[in-house]
Design goal:
The complex is a heterodimer of chains A (about 190) and B (about 575). Chain A contains six helices and four strands, in the order ααααβαβββα. Chain A is mainly alpha-helical. Among the domains of chain A are: about 60 residues, Orthogonal Bundle (3-methyladenine DNA Glycosylase II, Chain A, domain 3), CATH 1.10.15.40; about 60 residues, Alpha-Beta Plaits (2-Layer Sandwich), CATH 3.30.70.20. In chain A, helix 2 crosses helix 3. The longest helix of chain A has 27 residues. Chain A starts with a helix and ends with a helix. Chain B has about 575 residues and is an alpha/beta fold. Among the domains of chain B are: about 350 residues, Rossmann fold; about 60 residues. In chain B, helix 1 runs antiparallel to helix 3, helix 3 packs parallel to helix 4 and helix 3 packs across helix 6. Classes of the chains: A mainly alpha (about 190), B alpha/beta (about 575). The interface between A and B is medium-sized, with 31 and 39 residues.
Chain lengths: ~190, ~575
């Protein structure tokens, strides 16, 4: 009888000690925010375009952390989906066409002669990449523009174009040579 | 002259046919002054220079026409006197064939120098003052990469330079520009090295030259005899002239992966750079010309020329007797590391050490690539001890993590692996593409990070503004409430402490308040108030825009309308009152 009592008491004491340690650790080492959201957010392209149906990349990251599909980001395209699938250990899905197509990187360009200076695009720009003031001509800071399209819609005179990022000496890159194909192997054999 | 010091060997390397004799027979020639010079604003690694001239300006030889923007940039000087005819995109020597912003100068044929300001005694100057001079002379490395020389010399205090290495190895086939420079300018090169020594104060100076250049070795030995520097002869092997390779051969030290020679107390400069430093400091002449090899079987008289920077390539080729029907590939640089030029209208720039006009037999099109048989020859040839066959697979599969883990960025793109490959796989092309893609992705990430920060800052700003507005609204509401309370308190006070003097007034107010207006009177009162408002608004606008004639015309009309409405209302109340 005393053996059983001792065992129960020992276990009870152990449980209390571990409970106290765990309780202290939970308070002392509390993680601020949700780290997975930050990790997902780091993989998203940060265009803040809202094509996924969320008001920005961070809200979409939060939605993904809560189980939203990972294939709703057209600017990120296949690479982002793949990276998200790797991070979350889920099957990569094809890009959901409902939210748009994968496009080459674009920048907004304001036809300055037609701009009336209404500041509507400035208010729409999620990254403050448009410079201008009321009744002054506006212009896009190309280096900051994410190509999100959000400035097109509010423009009352439709003077904003989305242009592909021009190829210059700085961003030109060598192409991968045509890979050695099976037919070349057959031809050689 | 001391005995030849010990040298080390590098791993790998190849021995391709030299093909150097063709272009050394004619000495150093001076091509005719070109009619038009194209001076790209980007002739070095770093930021584009910023133009200082505009079309129509007259410039003198040696005048600054574009200034450095930022630390890693180089100014550009006019190579001859003439008129700036245009400023804008112009042909550029690059594998892509894309245009780059350039200043175009039409030569006036006079070749008139701007007044030179040589330093009489550079030893009396501080190293920093000399660095400024080198920076202002627009010198960037002449070896090939074109790194601006001044920032390279401005060693950080924690990196003491104990060995200065001067690179005269010139290991790539066909190229002889460094060879000819050493043969014909040895004393000047040595004087330039002395300037570099004054800046860096190294413990020793080693000049590395491959043993296939006996005339250059003799000339340099003779020039360096009385100076604290050593000419070291190294065996001919490609790519001994690579910066890291030459360092390993001369000192036995290896530059750490991803590091700089300065990290192990070394600095390496090309002999052409030393000559340019001599010209800049001792003659006061900026970098406006360079020695370039013109070679290849498609040229009737291959040679070396002292060409002005900006000379169109086609001018130089016709000087060397180009036979256009035989030209198959025009390469800038050597056959191993050079690139095919899509356009011979492009100019030579500060980094252009060689133009190779090759015939079909000389540089035949590569045979179709066959599959890798894992023979391992490429790994044996690699001077950086990488595994090209592995890198090739990873580049094909776009496995960027593995590429970086296998040290892709230590590849110097020398082409030794592709040269020995029995399957003729264009390995270097894979590595260049892989590097470019990894760099592009990194750039994308840093841009995304930047966008995220901007987005978050904007969100914070909007929130701050909303809070501010809310606070202001509350403050206004409070103020209005206080004012109302004060009015009511005053009214009640007046009611209770009715003093005789105030009585008539109060009676009038009370009578007004008490008097109930008929509907017509109310209407008239509203009309009068509206007219007064309109008048006040117009007056306010007029005060803001005194030039507005429309408003000026409106004011009297509005005044009249208000007066009429007020009169009508007063008449109506007066009739009622008695």
């Amino acid at each position: 009888m005393s053996i059983i009592l001792t065992a129960v008491l020992t276990l009870l004491v152990l449980a209390l000690i571990f409970g106290a340690v765990l309780g202290y650790a939970a308070v002392r080492f509390r993680v601020e925010g949700d780290p997975i959201v930050e990790q997902i957010n780091a993989l998203l392209p940060q265009t803040q375009c809202g094509q996924c149906g969320h008001p920005g990349c961070k809200p979409y990251a939060e939605a993904i952390a809560n189980g939203a599909p990972i294939n709703k980001c057209p600017p990120g395209g296949e690479t982002t989906i793949q990276a998200l699938a790797d991070l979350l250990d889920v099957e990569p899905l094809p890009l959901d066409g409902e939210h748009g197509e994968e496009k080459p990187p674009m920048v907004a360009y304001i036809r300055e002669a037609e701009c009336i200076g209404c500041t509507k695009c400035i208010q729409a720009c999620p990254v403050d990449a448009i410079l201008g003031a009321a009744r002054q001509m506006h212009t896009v800071i190309v280096a900051e523009c994410t190509g999100c399209d959000l400035c097109l819609e509010p423009c009352p005179v439709d003077c904003i174009d989305m242009l592909p990022l021009p190829v210059t000496i700085q961003n030109w890159r060598w192409d991968l040579p045509r890979p050695v194909t099976g037919s070349a192997r057959g031809g050689a054999a | 002259m001391t005995a030849q010091p010990r040298i080390w060997d590098i791993p790998g390397g190849i021995h391709p046919p030299q093909n150097k004799a063709q272009s050394t027979a004619r000495g150093l020639e001076q091509p005719p002054l070109p009619e038009r010079l194209i001076l790209p604003l980007l002739q070095h690694i770093g930021n584009r220079a910023e133009p200082l001239v505009k079309p129509g300006d007259r410039v003198l030889k040696g005048q600054v026409i574009a200034t450095a923007s930022g630390l890693f940039s180089c100014p550009v000087h006019a190579p001859t006197s003439g008129t700036v005819s245009a400023l804008g995109p112009a042909p550029y020597p690059h594998a892509s064939g894309l245009a780059e912003p350039a200043i175009i100068i039409d030569s006036d044929g006079e070749d008139r120098w701007i007044e030179a300001q040589p330093v009489a005694d550079y030893r009396s100057l501080e190293p920093l003052a000399l660095l400024d001079r080198i920076r202002d002379a627009g010198i960037s490395g002449l070896g090939g990469a074109g790194f601006p020389t001044a920032p390279k010399l401005a060693a950080r205090p924690d990196h003491r330079i104990d060995t200065l290495i001067i690179n005269g190895a010139e290991c790539e086939p066909y190229i002889t520009s460094d060879d000819m420079t050493m043969r014909h300018r040895a004393p000047q090169i040595v004087a330039g090295i002395e300037v570099l020594m004054h800046i860096l104060q190294p413990a020793q100076v080693l000049i590395g030259i491959e043993d296939n250049k006996p005339e250059a070795i003799a000339a340099m030995r003779a020039a360096a005899e009385q100076h604290p520097m050593q000419v070291v002869v190294i065996p001919t092997k490609y790519p001994s002239g690579g910066e890291k390779q030459l360092i390993q051969i001369l000192t036995g030290k290896e530059v750490p992966s991803g590091g700089l020679p300065a990290d192990i107390g070394l600095l390496c400069h090309n002999i052409g750079t030393a000559l340019a430093v001599h010209d800049a400091v001792l003659l006061g002449r900026p970098m406006i010309s360079r020695i370039t090899t013109l070679t290849g079987a498609a040229l009737a008289r291959p040679t070396n020329v002292k060409a002005l920077i900006g000379t169109p390539i086609q001018d130089l080729l016709s000087f060397a007797g180009l036979r256009p029907e035989q030209l198959y590939r025009l390469v800038m640089g050597g056959p191993m590391m050079g690139f095919t030029l899509p356009d011979s209208a492009a100019p030579i720039i500060k980094t252009s050490n060689c133009l190779l006009a090759a015939t079909h037999d000389e540089l035949p099109p590569p045979p179709p690539a066959l599959p890798c048989i894992r023979c391992g020859l490429c790994a044996e040839a690699c001077p950086a001890e990488l595994l090209p066959q592995q890198l090739h697979w990873f580049a094909l599969g776009k496995d960027h993590d593995q590429l970086q883990r296998h040290n892709l960025f230590d590849c110097i793109e020398c082409g030794a692996c592709a040269y020995v490959c029995p399957s003729s796989i264009p390995l270097v092309q894979y590595f260049r593409a892989g590097k470019a893609e990894i760099r592009a992705i990194e750039q994308q990430h840093s841009r995304a990070e930047q966008s995220r920060l901007r987005f978050e800052h904007r969100q914070q700003r909007l929130q701050r503004e909303a809070e501010q507005r809310e606070l202001e609204r509350q403050a206004r509401a409070e103020k209005a409430a206080r004012a109302k309370a004060a009015r009511e308190a005053q009214a009640s006070r007046q009611q209770t402490e009715t003093s005789p003097a105030a009585a008539p007034d109060l009676a009038r107010i009370q009578s007004r308040k008490a008097s109930t207006l008929s509907p017509e009177q109310k209407q008239l009162k509203v009309a009068a108030a509206t007219a007064r408002m309109a008048l006040q608004r117009a007056q306010k606008q007029l005060a803001a825009n005194p030039d507005n004639t429309d408003l000026q015309a409106q004011i009297p009309k509005l005044e009249q309308a208000f007066a009429e409405a007020q009169q009508a209302f007063e008449q109506a109340t007066a009739q009622e009152a008695p």
